[in-house]
Amino acid sequence: MAIVDVTVIPIGTDSPSVSKYVAEIQKILESYKEKGTINFQLTPMSTLIEGELPSLFEVIQAIHEAPFNQGIQRVATNIRIDDRRDKKVKMNDKLESVRSKM
């Protein structure tokens, strides 16, 4: 299972606020979560998504397309992937590991 930190940045919006684009992306992520494909967590600066790597690439493509579907002509998407293969680790496992050492 991999964990992805992804930020989708619509370029050329009408205002400095991008919350309507973030909200649409969260709806897409919720639809994938309902299918059991992923789990995700919105943070103030990005979204964390966990799942199997092939599914994550499908999800990333879907959320990258979301601003285009809302009329934006340019989108920059930043992706950081943590793909650990020696054991299955979820987002909460990583947090608990740090907390246990505090």
From TrEMBL:
Residues 4-99 form the Thiamine-binding protein domain. Transmembrane segments: none annotated. InterPro entries: MTH1187/YkoF-like, Thiamine_BP, UPF0045_domain. It comes from the Bacteria. Belongs to the UPF0045 family. NCBIfam families: MTH1187 family thiamine-binding protein. This is MTH1187 family thiamine-binding protein. It comes from Litchfieldia luteola. The lineage of its organism: Bacteria, Bacillati, Bacillota, Bacilli, Bacillales.
